[in-house]
Amino acid sequence: MSKKASGVILTRYSIKDNTITQSMLTEQSITTADIQDAAIDFPEVTQRQMACTDLYLGIKKWRIWAMLASQDIKLRYRRSILGPFWITISMAITVYSMGYLYSRLFHVDLQHYFPFLVAGMLGWSLISTMVTEYTDGFVTSDGLIKQVKLPYSLHIHRIIYRNIIIFFHNIIVIVPIIALFHDYAKINWYTLLLFPGLAVLYVNAMSYGMILAMLGARYRDIAQVIKSLIQVIFFITPVMWDPSMLSPKNQFIMSFNPFYGFLQIIRQPLLGQMPTKMTFIIVLFVSVFGIILSFLMFMRYRARIVYWL
Q1: Do residue 64 and residue 183 come from a single domain?
Q2: Of 238, 40, 202, nearest to 130 (Cα)?
Q3: For residues 185 and 60, which has the higher predicted lDDT (pLDDT)?
Q4: How many domains does the chain have?
Q5: What global pTM score does this model have?
Q6: Domain around 1
Q7: 83 and 20, same domain (yes or no)
Q8: Is the dihedral of CA 120, 121, 126, 127 positive or negative?
Q9: pLDDT tens-digit readout, 61-70
Q10: Counting Cβ atoms within 10 Å, is residue 117 exposed (0-12), middle (13-18) or buried (19+)?
């Protein structure tokens, strides 16, 4: 028989259907078993559930990362007359001078090459800037991570949204090109494919951004390695040069360059053209691989991120 506990009043808590209920145990009804059961029993939460919750809350709190991204741009160009349009001016000077110079160096038609280069530089600027910023995604936000309880995925959304805002500022650069070289670059129904392309790029940016951000937080040398590699990738990716310059037997090289696929889903709609079937295959394969790998890594290492900072 269980012994009565005299002179004690316990409050029993129980969790049912995510609701905590409480009941008072009087002196006459308290037993030794009741004293042992008085502790709160919390349901076990797996790392998978916590990772899914983090990703869900990252999307749900879109107002926070949108506000932070806009604030980043405002602080960067505070007390500047033109603000973020200084990036647009710098982009315009770069691509306009390169377009004329490289068309002469490569001996290609200016009517074809100029729009090709400008659209490629716009897409590459978006992709490369996000990749280089991912490695410091958690490191630069360590103060916010340690002081405020926010989902980790929110900081990746912040980087992507900030760069997409800048991309739409820079897209003004291609407007004069379309007006001057309308035989090759034009606005038509294919131009609307830019928005699905940006959506696909956003999903991949979240996947690979999470991977690079975790690696950058764990190994601080990763940031320098990525910045060096991105410069090399720029030259082996058809940004300044047309893939048609390669011989037919070397065309397969583009199939092994995932940056080329994502560049095309941005560049082709800007030129009013439809991306090729091979482009969609490359993007689909890279997207599925990135989603699976990033979720597995995030599920396993999510709890360690704060200790790496």
Answers
A1: yes
A2: 202
A3: 60
A4: 2
A5: 0.81
A6: 1-43
A7: no
A8: positive
A9: 889 999 998 8
A10: buried
